[in-house]
Design brief:
globular; seven-stranded mixed beta sheet; 209 residues; Rossmann fold; 7 helices; 35% helix
Length: 209
């Protein structure tokens, strides 16, 4: 695990990585550092297939969903009870798996909210193959921070999905799946990542409002 931010934080957020990259990419490092600087405790972890890659360098695909969710449960057990709000989430697959866990009633009491950074609404180029179940069954506040050019789900794609009331989507201007904009847009990657961090910290502040 990687842990950033103060122990006596106003909230703890556990973040999982996406399907193809580990917990300490520049993207994940920047998000974690930004959230920690705003007083949040940020815990990052890796699923077993990614941890194995660190050892032998062999690229593997993610485990099946039940295995991913069991890893989430192990991490929650290791973190233990928190006196302040506990959020779970992550990038792409990490956020989707967190949303799936939170949608299961028996696990809700420990989870205050969910944060998805680039939700994979559907595979790129296959908008008919949606992955909406955890968002349609959401019972806890759920924030999705999404680039408006994300091939996994654009504003046009998402408009008709009929997501549950607790789900909020915040769009990052001209951002791709990692919030990177095109140069001609006038946006910057740094600015978009800072906007993503502010969006999450504002969301956390709103939980206590």
């Amino acid at each position: 695990m990687l842990i950033d931010g103060p122990k006596n934080s106003r909230a703890t957020i556990i973040l999982a990585h996406g399907a193809g990259a580990p917990m300490d990419t520049p993207y994940m490092n920047t998000i974690a550092a930004g959230l920690a600087a705003d007083g949040l405790r940020v815990v990052r972890f890796e699923f077993a297939y990614m941890a194995k890659r660190r050892i032998d360098g062999i690229r593997r695909g993610p485990e099946r969903i039940p295995t991913l969710l069991n890893r989430w449960l192990d991490v929650l057990d290791e973190i233990g009870e928190t006196k302040t709000p506990l959020l779970i989430g992550g990038k792409s697959m990490g956020g989707r798996s967190a949303a799936m866990l939170a949608a299961e009633t028996q696990h809700q009491p420990r989870i205050s909210a969910v944060v998805c950074l680039g939700y994979p609404f559907h595979p790129p180029g296959k908008p008919e193959k949606t992955r909406l179940e955890p968002l349609q069954a959401a019972k806890r506040p759920t924030l999705i921070v999404q680039g408006d050019r994300d091939p996994f789900g654009t504003p046009e794609d998402v408009a008709g999905y009929g997501l549950a009331d607790p789900v909020t989507i915040s769009w990052i201007p001209d951002g791709d799946h990692s919030f990177v904009p095109r140069k001609r847009s006038g946006q910057t990657e740094t600015g978009n990542l800072e906007l993503a961090v502010r969006t999450v910290t504002d969301f956390v502040s709103g939980l206590a409002a």
